[in-house]
Write a structure and sequence with these properties.
By secondary structure, the chain is α/β, with parallel strands linked by helices. It has two domains: 129 residues, Rossmann fold, CATH 3.40.50; 160 residues, Rossmann fold (3-Layer(aba) Sandwich), CATH 3.40.50.2000. The protein has eleven helices and eleven strands. Helix 6 runs parallel beside helix 11 and helix 8 packs across helix 9. The two termini are 33 Å apart.
Length: 295
């Protein structure tokens, strides 16, 4: 998001389009400088109709600039196809693009720093912080008057080694309920399978699969604490939360917080080689540092 705001600052008055997955559409709809959103849900390479549509869209739009912020094998292929008959300024990792970012150390940089370097290769030297308030729209469907803690117990179904054991989260729930703290479970469709083998936990509001990114922005702003695995929703939760809100993020060896940890204030990173070697008592001790008796 840092890179997108930086691009918008540099190209004020330009017609800016976004090519993204459908799950991010609602959050980009909140940005006033985004004029067009094109959905690309990473269809299989043999989905010819989908890709013909993308190619047709690209050529019709006649873009002056393209910023490849995903920098994947797929988007490198897009560069080859999209620029076959129409050249444009392209900032990415393809060697033959007009403004390549070829730093061999890029894979060792945090995403935000890596994209800052990439944009400098295109002449964008000033970085702009995102205005997270754009996403915090008042949401009347969420009315939780008590202090509440957000727990994010899941993660990608393809990366189960990034998930702290669900039973550990239940221990955290029990501890919070003793303090009369409401608990919200947050997650996507992949996490629904986690819950189906467990009985409903008293005092837990299950919002798994029931929120979009703007919902998360609103909920995080009111939370007294956020605890979760290294997964997509944590980035928006951390970024949009109150500065005083403690954020505890759990990491194992499957991902490196130096490269991909959510950025925000009052963030505590807990990491063990095996994520399940993180003891619930450690998290409970961190929770107890908050004086909930004053809330």
């Amino acid at each position: 998001m840092y890179a997108i705001f930086s691009i918008s600052q540099y190209f004020k008055g330009y017609h800016i389009s976004i090519l993204t997955e459908s799950k991010y559409e609602d959050i980009f709809n909140k940005l006033p400088f985004i004029k067009d959103i094109r959905i690309d849900n990473r269809k299989k390479i043999y989905s010819f109709i989908h890709y013909l549509g993308l190619i047709n869209w690209f050529y019709k739009e006649s873009f002056e600039w393209v910023f490849d912020l995903q920098t994947s094998k797929r988007t490198k292929l897009y560069f080859l196809i999209f620029t076959l008959f129409r050249k444009c300024n392209w900032n990415g990792i393809s060697k033959n693009c007009s403004h390549p970012h070829l730093n061999l150390e890029r894979k060792y940089l945090h995403t935000v720093e890596r994209q800052k370097q990439q944009l400098k290769c295109a002449g964008l030297h000033e970085s702009r912080k995102p205005d997270w308030n754009l996403f915090k729209k008042v949401n009347k469907k969420f009315k939780y008057s008590k202090p509440y803690v957000i727990l994010v117990p899941g993660g990608s179904k393809h990366r189960e080694n990034k998930r702290w054991c669900y039973d550990n989260f239940l221990l955290i729930v029990s501890h919070l309920r003793k303090k009369n703290i409401q608990v919200l479970f947050i997650g996507g469709s992949d996490e629904k399978k986690i819950l189906k083998n467990y009985k409903k936990k008293k005092g837990v509001i299950n919002l798994i699969g029931k929120t979009n990114f703007t919902d998360l922005a609103y909920l995080s702003d009111k939370a007294s604490m956020i605890i979760g695995n290294d997964t997509g929703p944590m980035h928006i939760l951390v970024a949009c939360s109150n500065k005083k809100t403690k954020k505890i993020i759990l990491f194992g060896e499957a991902s490196d917080p130096n490269l991909c940890a959510p950025i925000g204030e009052n963030v505590k990173i807990i990491r063990k080689k095996n994520i399940n070697d993180i003891k619930p008592k450690l998290i409970i001790d961190l929770i107890n540092e908050n004086n909930y008796s004053k809330l």
